[in-house]
Amino acid sequence: MSEILIKLGLAALFGLVIGVDREVRKKPLGLKTCLVLSVSSCLLTIVSIHAAYDFLKSDRIMMDPMRLAAQIVSGVGFIGAGVILKRTDDVISGLTTAAMIWGASGLGVAVGAGYFFEAGLALVIILIGVDLLPYLLHRFGPSILTSKEILISFVLRDMALYDDIRNHLISLDLKLKGSKFTELDDRTVRVEMRALADEDRTVADLFRNIREHEAILKLDVRSLER
User: Fold this and answer.
1) pLDDT value at position 78?
2) What is residue 192's three-state secondary structure?
3) pTM
């Protein structure tokens, strides 16, 4: 019983650490979800292993000790899919949160199977990869890693002015990545453009700078957080 309590407590702690990381970053699934997943995965792993030995038949194991644990990996995938959002045609967010949820359940499985050191080491590596590594890349990496992606949407009253507006955006040190055009009537067109901007520039500043071009109507600027 003491061993089971240690396993469940350690799984709860690991899930708590993963959950706090998500809560700090204001992600959809946070502390409670990760804790429940980690503890539940640990419990199912304990049950799966003990059941294999508790229901012996003629001193032979009649079932796979990790049978239930194997189903956790695929089952948690459905929960992770719920936080993956498609923002635009080719921009998807929530993948890291989904992976962290899957990782929390994996830690629970490892602890339930008795691999305490391996689970602890995996937790440290996960946190380094998610929190410390991006900071180091942002600080010492190439300029593209210090940029944020923004979505610029506006109504253009004449397509003949598109090249002029494009040059205006480039003059604002924006790196354009792609465009989408939607015809509204015979003359006006809605344009959606994805661009990279310096991470230190606020959306409000970008909005004011872009709005200076008189041909741009109904401007919308937003940051595409992943």
Assistant:
1) 76
2) strand
3) 0.62
